[in-house]
Amino acid sequence: xxxxxxxxxxxxxxxxxxxxxxxxxxxxxxxxxxxxxxxxxxxxxxxxxxxxxxxxxxxxxxxxxxxxxxxxxxxxxxxxxxxxxxxxxxxxxxxxxxxxxxxxxxxxxxxxxxxxxxxxxxxxxxxxxxxxxxxxxxxxxxxxxxxxxxxxxxxxxx
Length: 158
Known about the structure:
Rossmann fold, Dihydrofolate Reductase, subunit A, three-stranded parallel beta sheet, 20% helix
């Protein structure tokens, strides 16, 4: 156990929720006044949903795009973001070249063709044109493997 850890900066919980439909009874929303909680919603998110979240203490942003939302976070002083989202958010970040470092936990399980892909919707790229990532760490996590890849250390196609 590490004991009591005090972060240098208070972490901000950021939720990417296009429709601003977070449930008001969720702990994430109920504790928004104690722990900064921000939602990135689309400009088309229902005004009633946005207002409900804001009444609960959630700060709601409505950028035009995912990249615009990340710029808003950077402008607010957030320099790094740990994304624990599902495949759709991960795929969008990946497809828009918004991922600098990928922490990929691989389990020794193969689900086959009918399984949900890790990055759904990312278009296929010819091998010669595919960006090359640099492995910066490999570590066993029980029977799983953590693979950390960095995009910033290499040039596309190199």
